[in-house]
Amino acid sequence: MKKTILLSFLLITWASCAFAQTEVEEEFRQRGPQTTAAVSSDAVRQGNWIVGASIGNIGFNFDSDFFTLNVNPRAGYFVSDNAVLGTEVQLGLDIYDGGETFRYGLTPFARYYFPEGAAPTHRWFGEALAGIAGSSEEDSEGDAVFSGVIGLRAGYAHFVAQNVALEGILGYTHTSADISVGNGQSGLNLAVGLQVYLPGRNR
């Protein structure tokens, strides 16, 4: 009798655990890892901050032993809903056979998130920037060591968490300082970045 009761108890326990595990597995399959978050307009409200960075170009050429990297950390403040004023630091490095070039700059920017086409998980935005930049290269014709920078950008922010977004940015930049646009002058640049949206003190 005791063996029968013990066996029944073990079978019931095993069946309960198996059922619970099946439910957990099914819920995980339905939810999966978080790749998006519904934030509506909370992240782009007046008084919030953004902090992040974008990588404009990273690569290595095995034939010429040429390595390049451009990183642009940034911070901004929402002066009104959808509108940000901030500053971006331009940092670039080229390493090649025979030397290296370091590029730098400081570019204030204005960004606007368009209400048109907005969704709970993403926002489109436009951006304008103007500042100064330089490089460690010696001055030569068409490549100034220190120069002004102006640019226009369009981008897409996809929220992967309530206050974190992945961004894709396509921009046009004009400069003579050899910063993020090949050999200077002007050009298009495609960048990817990560942006953190921080609520203001009054939120």
TrEMBL record:
Q: Which domain of life is it from?
A: Bacteria
Q: Where is the signal peptide?
A: 1-20
Q: Which PROSITE patterns match?
A: PROKAR_LIPOPROTEIN
What keywords were assigned to this record?
Answer: Signal
Q: What is this protein called in UniProt?
A: Outer membrane protein beta-barrel domain-containing protein
Q: Please tell me the species this chain comes from.
A: Pontibacter mangrovi
